[in-house]
Give the backbone structure.
Amino acid sequence: MDTQFIGVGAFYNPHLAAETLSTGDLIDHLAMADPPHKDDPHFASIQQRYTLLLHDYIGQLADPVPLHAVERACRLAALYRSPWIAEHFQCVITQDGRCNVDYVFPPIYTRGMLERYVANARALQQAIGRPLVLEQIPRYFRCDLDEIPEAQFLREFFEATGAGFLLDVAHAWLEAHYRGRDIHSYLADLPLDLVTELHVAGVSHYSDLGGPWIAPVEPTEELLDLSAWAFERMPRVRGVTFDAFSTILKPGVIPRTVERIRQRLQIPAGRRAARP
Amino acid sequence: MNSRDTQDVILRLLADGPLRTAAIQGQAGGDPDVAFVLARVDAPALDRFGRFLCRHFYRERVLHFFKYSRALFSLTGRAPDAVLKTPEFNALLPQLVMGELDSARKVLALLETHLLGNADSIRAAVPYWDDLVRYQGLFFLTDALPTDNTVVAGARFPARAPTAAILELAWDLPPVLPQLVKPFERLPLASRQATRLLFARSAEGEVSVLRCTDVLRDLLVGMTGEQDPRELARPLGLDTASLEKTMQRLEQLGAVISQGSFSASHRGSEVSPAATPPGR
């Protein structure tokens, strides 16, 4: 059985930086959702100690990414020495710039959108010169405007661009939940063979939605089991990340969750993971 | 309608409460694109998601811009974000357009009622409470101003940006603000001293606050785009070098806008400043 290094990490939450730095070799990498604050006393140590992954808002690939956004992403990727950069399958701003829902929201899955995502992702990769991974986003409400299934849209996108798949298991669970699909069947349809990074997180109930949605909380045992199930089907995965970024996160949550992920996915700290 | 345009209709329905409400009630003015999309989505679920997004949008901003009031919760018993869970905010949701100034004003009115109503006991504990709420409120509103800080139509000279605002306070808040978000045993006290602050929003959407002297206020008030800043500066006792430095800073912060850059147009110039008005 081969072994390969698969990092396990979390998001960088500046208010928990001291705790993060005290966790020994538990955490391999930190995803950066925001640039470091200029007064952050811990960032220099964080930067020195961890592999940092650029997971900021770069731009929506439904449209060409503006030059200033590309330049900003280049600067941040260089600062972090990020091995890959992440974006989302999202389209949240109207073309005239007048409406911005300011929250992740997926595109409709059409041939026209796919062409736009492919062209803009290729341009972004070329401009930044680092591998790109894209994370799938769930849709809360039924929308009969798609021309192709989400899974096909994702696979064709990844195959056309060479980008990697960032699978978020909580997002997958929510998409299956709101579409009324069996989660294993839903996951099996996704291009798991193209996953570079796996996000593990929990979900919470929201009264506005009358049901669960994305939240910066610990994953349930069910979501950890699903993560493990999917993980076994990802021959190219390089990193597993606890996806929680919020000032409401309490001390203890990140180390406990990273430890649970390591145990459930059998990736011991400081060692290489056995891969079939 | 191509698929990118279709996506825009979905985004508008999510972000624009009045449009969404009217469309779901069949009163969207016969917009065929809206009708096309609405016929193909679960409209009640889209409405719930729109409300969720709107509440999330304002929660993020209230937590950010009212962080000082939030930090004083143990003294005041009033958490700013609690207003977003009230029946009054729920009733307002269908009227709100995310990011729109008028919507921000409506939310701010609720916040002010929530934080300043029947607040005598709070004022006794936090003497600068009213000023603090006004300071945060202006930050909140400035964030909602349009980013399109275009030059005033017909302006011949650099002009004060529509996003620039001046706030007069009875208390000198700036020194005390950083102390409020750190642990403290006794409330950090501000000096009772008239203080004027300038709020500016850059093209990138970053809001800055700086102290505003009488000279700076008078300069900004006069900058309508109709008069050369050097003419405005002379009676204020501002020399050319100081004016250039001030203008450069104001342009960077987004408090002043011009066709070209006032400061760039003057850098290294050997031409008499009086001979060539800037911004032409």
Observations:
- Chain A has nine helices and twelve strands.
- Chain A has one domain: 2-275.
